[in-house]
Structures are given as structure tokens and as C-alpha cells.
Design a protein that fits this description.
The protein is mainly α. The radius of gyration is 29 Å and the shape is elongated.
Length: about 325
């Protein structure tokens, strides 16, 4: 009742009296958790956003729980136009509970405010620059930063941030690699190429081979994108498919022990059949694929065999082989 009475006084323009009633009511019933919520929401309905923040913070002290009302306080700050204070609350929440990153992302998307995004990116940059890579908050801040940069299509800055994170780590954390895969999904092929080349130029063994495979995937999807949108005015599509094949060839020439060799031979065969039209190479890749452990039961093998048979215009045999693919 007193909450509503305070609202009425506020509506009549007697703001100071309204605030006094709200506060006295809380002082009279300090242990009523719901009263803090009701009072703060009443204040917000009257656009007393910063007063509502103080009520929420007062509840934190009374109930000795600094985790209370993170979202409510941030939202009140946002409605008051105090973006930096709102961001501060969200980042405190992220520090206390990294699993809340999706909640913070949803909150940012709900406001859909470019200025809010810019301020958050700057704040995250500052925090990351001033803490050690071993700080438990680093990864959460980094993940939020990378997500925000991509949401704002600041892909080059995202790549620079990922390289910074990778370079500061004592061992590979694959931040650039993981971003490279996201860059492919966003059709940022030039930057994806740069991301995977970061590893092919600096590493050996499994990390290098995996990055070469992703580099091949980048070139192949780049070529398909050009074809899908009729962007090929200089025959670049063909050269990209050739580069995709070359990356796989380099793995095949360098090692027999790559854990993803089955995919390498499968992709070599597919590219040779469908895009560079090199049937001997496709046949050689298929032969090598069959020799790999656990590859004989792969459904891709009869498909490739059917495609090779079809290229020789042996239609009945090709149909039988394609039928095996669906079993």
C-alpha cells in the first residue's frame, strides 16, 4: 500500500515526499525481500532509475549477497542512460559467473544500440590489456569481446584480438583457429585465410596439418560462394579450387600420420571429381582412402566409386554403386 501511496505523491509532483515514503517503508520492513523488488519497480515506473538502483544495492547489503539483481541494476542504469555503469554491472556478473555470458549477450542484443556496443568493446579492450592471460577473467572477457566485434562486423579487429590472445599464451589456445572457422561462416574468406596461415607458418605436426585442411576448406567455400552469387568475372573460382586441392596435397605429401587423413583423401577425391576434373587424381585419392583404417565401411566410398564410373558413362554400374551409398 505504501508503495502505491508513494507513487501517487510522485505523480502529483511531490517527488521528495514520495522518495521519503519509499525509503521509510523499506526501513520499517528491512527483511522483506519482495518489498525491495516492488519498490524498485515502482520507482522505475516513475522514471526514478538511479533511486531504484540504490534500492537494489541496499538489498544486497541487507541480505549480504552481492550477486543479487545484476540484471535489474544494469537495466535501470541503461534506462537512465548510464551506459558505462550498466556495462560495469554486466562485467561484474561475468566475473562472478562466466556461464552468464549468454544472458549478457541477450541483454546487449535486446538494446541493439551501436553506442552501447562501442563502449562495451572499449571497456573490454581496456580490461584485457590490464590483466594477465592467466587471470581467470581473461577468457570470459575475450569471448564477449570477440562476439561483440563479429556482431558489429568488425572482423579485422576480431582477428587482431584473437592473434593477441594466441600470442600471449604459453601454449596454443586455438583462438585464431576457432575465429577462422567463424570467419568462413561470415564469408570473410580473406581474413579466414589469414587466420589459418597464422598456424601453417608457425607450427608443425598436427596443428599445421589441421590448419592446412581448414585452409583448403576456406578456398573451397570461397569458390562456392563466388559461384553461388555469380561473382566470378576473372575465373578466380577455378584457381581457388586448385588452391584447395594444393593444401590437401601438401598434407598428403608431408605425412601419413595426420589424424584427419580420411577427410583429406575424401576431399581430394571430391575436388578432383567435381571441380578440377582430374580423374586420375580422384582415383588415386580413392585408392588411398580405401587403405586407411576403418575407411572401408564409409558411405562416401561407393558414392565416389559411382561418380568415377559415371564419368566413364557406365550408367548401370554407377547406379548400383550409388544405391550402396544409401544403405
Amino acid at each position: 500500500v505504501m508503495v502505491k501511496i508513494a507513487e501517487l505523491y510522485h505523480f502529483k509532483g511531490e517527488k521528495e515526499k514520495a522518495l521519503n515514503i519509499w525509503q521509510k517503508n523499506l526501513a520499517d520492513h528491512p527483511q522483506k525481500h519482495q518489498l525491495y523488488i516492488t519498490t524498485a519497480r515502482s520507482m522505475i515506473s516513475r522514471r526514478e532509475y538511479l533511486e531504484a538502483v540504490q534500492v537494489y544495492k541496499q538489498a544486497r547489503v541487507v541480505f549480504q549477497n552481492t550477486s543479487l539483481f545484476f540484471g535489474d541494476i544494469a537495466n535501470a542504469y541503461m534506462q537512465a542512460g548510464e551506459y558505462e555503469m550498466a556495462i560495469g554491472e554486466w562485467l561484474k556478473l561475468l566475473e562472478k559467473n562466466p556461464n552468464q555470458i549468454s544472458f549478457i549477450q541477450r541483454s546487449l542484443l535486446r538494446y541493439n544500440d551501436p553506442l552501447l556496443y562501442d563502449i562495451t568493446i572499449v571497456e573490454l579492450n581496456d580490461r584485457l590489456a590490464n590483466i594477465s592471460i592467466s587471470d581467470p577473467n581473461y577468457q570470459g572477457f575475450y569471448q564477449l569481446q570477440i562476439w561483440l566485434l563479429q556482431e558489429n562486423k568488425l572482423f579485422r579487429r576480431a582477428l587482431a584480438a584473437a592473434k593477441e590472445y594466441e600470442s600471449r599464451s604459453k601454449s596454443y589456445n586455438y583462438s585464431v583457429y576457432n575465429l577462422g572457422r567463424q570467419l568462413i561462416e561470415n564469408n570473410e574468406f580473406e581474413l579466414a585465410k589469414e587466420a589459418f596461415t597464422f598456424y601453417t607458418d608457425k607450427t608443425n605436426g598436427e596443428v599445421k596439418w589441421r590448419s592446412l585442411e581448414q585452409l583448403s576448406n576456406t578456398y573451397a567455400k570461397w569458390a562456392k560462394h563466388i559461384d553461388d552469387y555469380s561473382l566470378d568475372f576473372t575465373h578466380r573460382q577455378d584457381s581457388l579450387y586448385e588452391l584447395a586441392t594444393a593444401m590437401l596435397d601438401s598434407i598428403e605429401h608431408e605425412t601419413r600420420y595426420y589424424s584427419g587423413m580420411k577427410n583429406v583423401q575424401l576431399k581430394r577425391a571430391e575436388l578432383s571429381l567435381d571441380h578440377i576434373f582430374d580423374l586420375p587424381k580422384a582415383k588415386a585419392a580413392l585408392t588411398k582412402l580405401k587403405t586407411l583404417p576403418n575407411a572401408n565401411n564409409s558411405p562416401e566410398i561407393p558414392y565416389l566409386e559411382g561418380s568415377l564410373t559415371l564419368s566413364k558413362r557406365e550408367y548401370d554400374e554407377a547406379r548400383i554403386q550409388f544405391t550402396r551409398t544409401n544403405k
